[in-house]
Amino acid sequence: xxxxxxxxxxxxxRSKTDPHGEGLxxxxxxxxxxxxxxxxxxxxxxxxxIHEGPVFRAVNRWGRLQPQALSGGSxxxxxxxxxxxxxxxxVPTLSSHSFRRGLSTAAAREKVDFAQIKRQGGWKxxxxxxxxxEEGQQFTDNAANTLxxxxxxxxxxxD
Length: 159
Known about the structure:
Elements: E1 2-4, E2 7-12, E3 24-29, H1 37-48, E4 57-59, E5 65-69, H2 72-85, H3 96-109, H4 114-121, H5 126-136, H6 143-157
């Protein structure tokens, strides 16, 4: 990790999109005081007393932080538990992949540039990203919206 005034640069030594372990760097920008993943991470590291090694670690049955990293299965179980606590209706489909996919669909809804979405998610193939974007925009970028708006305007104008 490299802490910068604008945020954090994370180096992933290996990932799904980097099977040869060449390493990927991803920037995590600072948000505002209400929503800032960088500040949240700083707080976690400080409160957990983590100065080196894995950032997200296992916790034993007595609530003690362990030196080893969380497993992928643990991350998925934590996400599902949080989803249930929040009352989400899509808990069975939550997984660590949800973060990556969710970034693409949410960013697309906010009209973030395709190249930026692809780069942040680390996708190699345009088709994968386009599929997630199309899913995320299936209601906002829908030809029927224009027609429904026009018909509603015609009805209002004729009343």
